[in-house]
Design goal:
This is IclR family transcriptional regulator. GO terms for molecular function: DNA binding; DNA-binding transcription factor activity. This protein is an alpha+beta fold. The protein contains six helices and six strands, in the order H-E-E-E-H-H-H-E-E-E-H-H. It has one domain: Beta-Lactamase, CATH 3.30.450.
Length: 181
């Protein structure tokens, strides 16, 4: 559909600007769902196709979605989800995750620094919504050998611009739906 096509254009432009793979995500149950993805042309990359699901506790987008919940909501959700260890850096206790969530709330972005896959760094921001909780994120992923922690922070302005562009697309689509109803 046209909304998906418009989102894909934003994603493709972001990949061209930052030179790394990028994806659009949504929160589904207790997992992050990849809605769309554009790969970098660089030879070394991690391939996670649209439709892939990753645990929220060890992904940048997931931490953002969890940060929108109250601590009580988050604990209820995660009470039934094992905080599985994928790498030595995975957060596997609710206390450690709560501390990370506090940082995410303060910063307005989230990182996954080799918490899901060894050698993979990811930064994500939410797609802003006028009326409360966001159901969409946008993220950059790259091998840590190519994208250091410090360098990923320099890409946040581009990521936030893309998130704003996606928000505008969503708002326009919602307005068109209301006018056609």
């Amino acid at each position: 559909n046209t909304v998906h096509g418009a989102r894909h254009v934003v994603l493709r432009q972001l990949v061209e600007e930052v030179g790394e793979s990028c994806n659009i995500t949504a929160f589904s149950g207790s997992e992050v769902l990849y809605l769309d993805r554009v790969e970098t042309a660089a030879p070394l990359r991690f391939y996670l196709h649209p439709g892939s699901r990753v645990p929220a506790h060890c992904s940048a987008s997931g931490k953002l979605f969890l940060a929108q919940m109250s601590p009580a909501q988050r604990r209820r959700l995660l009470a039934h989800v094992p905080l599985e260890r994928f790498t030595p850096k995975t957060l596997t206790t609710l206390d450690a995750l709560d501390e990370e969530i506090d940082t995410v709330k303060r910063q307005g972005y989230a990182l996954d620094d080799e918490e899901f896959l060894p050698g993979l760094i990811c930064a994500a921001v939410l797609v802003p919504r006028q009326n409360g909780r966001s159901n969409m994120g946008i993220a950059i992923q790259a091998p840590i050998m190519r994208l250091s922690h410090d360098k990923v922070l320099t890409l946040l302005p581009a990521l936030k611009r893309a998130a704003k562009a996606l928000a505008d697309i969503e708002t326009q689509a919602e307005n068109e739906l209301q006018h056609s109803a």
